[in-house]
Every structure is written in C-alpha cells, then in structure tokens.
Specification:
single chain, 184 residues, mainly alpha, de novo design (two linked rop proteins), 7 helices
Amino acid sequence: MLWPLIIPIAVIVVLALFIWGLYNGLIRLKNNVENSWAQIDVQLKRRADLIPNLIETVKGYTKHEKSVLENVTKARTAFMNATSIEDKAKASNQLSDMLKTLFAVSENYPRLKANENFLQLQEELSGTESKIAYARQNYNDLVMMFNNKIEVFPNSIFAKQMNFTRKPLFEASEAERQNVKVQF
C-alpha cells in the first residue's frame, strides 16, 4: 500500500537534492569567478596607481615624447573610468600597450634608464604585470569551469531556470597577440 507512494517521493527527493547541490555548486563557482575578477581588479588598480609616478619620472628626461606620455595618461583614465569586466579588460589591454611604448621610448634615454626611481617603478610594474597575468589565468580557469558547468546536460536545463549565464573570459588584445620584435 505504501510502495506506490515511496517511489515518486524518492524520485522527488533525489531530484530536489540534485537541484540543491547544483545550485550551491553554481553559487560557489560564481562567487569564485567574482573573487578572481576582484583580484585582477586590485592588480590593475595597483598598476594604474604606479603610472602617475612613472610619468613624472619620465617627464624630466623625455621632453620630446609628449604624445607618448599623453597617450599613457589617456589609457589610464579610460581604465579608471571603465565599469564592466569587458570595458576594464579592453582598457587594461590598451594601457599595457601604452606602457610598452613608454618603455620602448625610455630606451632612447640612457640617463633615464639609470635613474633609480625609474628602475624601481619599472620593477614594480613588471612585478604587477606578472601578478595580473597570473590573476587573469586563474580568472579564465574559473570562468571556464563555471561556463562548462552551466552548459552541460542536465545542468543546462536547471541553470537557465535559475538565471545563470556565461561569464566573459579575459582575453588578450590584438597588440598583445603580435610577435615581439627584438633588435640588437
């Protein structure tokens, strides 16, 4: 007499446990993705904070490179004003490109290259760039796990119902994909 009720109740309980586990797993992954992005944001902000000091140090030596300094400043401003992940990623890539240009210009000024302040700032920026690269990789790994989890069957059915959507990857700019030319 109870057997006809036990099987449907067991199926409902198993389904409820599956949905509960799926939801909690998706929330954990979503929070990890957001935390990972926050770590990138911290390093990007640190880099942006170092740039005014770098520009002031370079200004005294590179009187003829006004446009380079202006472009670095504009790229930093664009980064500081960006709000979405996509906008910040794009602005960050532009800022990286401008910093590469600035360091390339500094090669023409031997006294600047020997300046302790410049060398220290360059070292700090280099360390920060390494941290950004690591944080980007971690972010992209977590985004891939999250996106995979919400897109595989049967998770995709429930993830759509719970309004989980794909997260964007942090991708390199076209300039970052180009081969670096080394000349001696």
